[in-house]
Amino acid sequence: MRPLIFAANWKMQVTPAEARAFVARFLELHPPREGRALWFFPAAVSLEATTTALQGRGDTRVGAQDVHWEPKGAFTGATSIPLARGAGATGALVGHSERRHVFGETEAETGRKVTALLAASLTPMLCVGELLAEREAGQTEAVVIRQLRAGLAGVSPADLQCVVIAYEPVWAIGTGRTATPADATVVHRAIRAELARLGASTRMSVLYGGSVNGGNAASLLAEVEIDGVLVGGASLDPVGWAEITGT
Ligand code: PEP
């Protein structure tokens, strides 16, 4: 059976104390399950609390929501890869739509972050996805492929297998609108075709994200192209999150 990845993006929520309480409750509800890996992406200040609370659970990993590509320096407010790693992160989101469209992160910057994470042996989870206007203009695949090429520009074919891709249509994030499993499958196929063109020799994990919840996770995960889910709002409650991770 293909491994499934369940990734929780807590965004700008969940304090260290709340992370400890969340993990304690969640682990009671979700024993390790064969072929399932769980990622938690807390805010930087809650990385260490989350990592410590998850200790001993080999099916879980913790990542930063964003990192800077420079290892240190005068970048007030940013989190470097050594800082994230020191707090327990073994990966990071890159190019989440809120970083791109709220904070103005460029496609070239996503590439620098992916390369820096790989050089430090951390897993980049590269997020790609089109705006509603781009979808309506028939540009979905072109946008996603452009973002993939930029994000993976410095990655050798051998290192591609260390990267996880998350397809997150921007119009579906936090809106309650989800791509249908069939719509997501079309884009996932285009992503896999591009990954093959870039030289990926093995099957890379391609997740779907965008208003995933307990009611729609099963139908999305039933698609052979969808290797897991990246979830924001519905990952904030341990009971609801355990329902999804137990799908
Ligand atoms: C996300 O933040 O990556 C996300 C998919 O959010 P939501 O599940 O709330 O749409």
Task: Report on this structure.
With 247 residues, the chain is an alpha/beta fold. Helix content is 39%, strand content 16%. It has eleven helices and eight strands. The protein has helices at residues 16-29, 47-53, 81-86, 97-101, 107-119, 132-136, 140-151, 157-160, 181-197, 217-221, 238-245; strands spanning 4-9, 36-41, 60-64, 91-94, 123-128, 164-167, 206-209, 228-231. It has an eight-stranded parallel beta barrel with strand order 1-2-3-4-5-6-7-8, surrounded by five helices. Helix 10 links the parallel strand 7 and strand 8. The longest helix is centred in the C-terminal third of the chain and has 17 residues, at 181-197. The radius of gyration is 17 Å and the shape is globular. It starts with a strand and ends with a helix. The model has no long low-confidence stretch (mean pLDDT 97). The structure holds phosphoenolpyruvate. Phosphoenolpyruvate binds next to strand 8.
